Amino acid sequence: MISKKKIEGTLVILTRNEIDGLRKIYPRIPVNRIGEVFAVDYNSIDGTINFYKKNKVRFYRQNLKGRGEAFRIAFSRAKYDNIVLFSPDGNENPDDIEKIFVLMKSGYDMVIASRFMKGGRCDEDDKKIKIRKFGNKIFTLFVNILFGGSLTDSINGFRGIKRCVFEETKPDAKGFGIEYQISMRAIKKGFKIKEIPTIEDKRISGRGTAGTFRTGLYFLKILLNEFFR
Description:
Layout: E1 7-15, H1 19-25, E2 34-41, H2 48-54, E3 58-61, H3 67-77, E4 82-86, H4 97-105, E5 110-114, H5 127-147, E6 159-162, H6 163-169, H7 178-188, E7 193-197, H8 212-227
Parallel strand pairs: 1-2, 1-4, 2-3, 5-7
Antiparallel strand pairs: 4-6, 5-6
Helix pairs in contact: 5-8, 7-8
């Protein structure tokens, strides 16, 4: 049961041209229940910034490209030690935000919203996404075998991360592999990790920018770097 007391945590909304997603998802985000909410935005030109201004959402502009840079801005600006990263593109379920904060408060260092554990679901309506699902599971299997983990979704970006995890793992990935890198380093350092099942819906508009083959090579590079690190 979720307490009525305001959550002592920071929710960071990550965007790049997500006005359609914000219009639909933002009303479902429990902003009044969370101690701090702000956004990190990379070069949006579709009205995302005006949406933040209209709804009085504090935001920071991201000048350098890459999700890794967005994470570093988020953790440098966050007031609280329990930090949840959320993208309002439709893939991530805002109903899970409070659940993640509650588990972090109970003592977990990192909480991952898993699409692949029992009760979760990955959007797999087309062949390309099915290939990505298979790839995600394979890369997670490698993490578990090589580093002694027990994860079902080591890659998903929707997660809560304590400040100490970010500071001690020192992630240096520039792109969207930063979550994968943090997962491996957190396991190696013995941090307490919890997963919860999450329902991944379709993107509200637009599409992901990463090619399947190129993404696979990128994650393989990160995996090998961590293994030989």
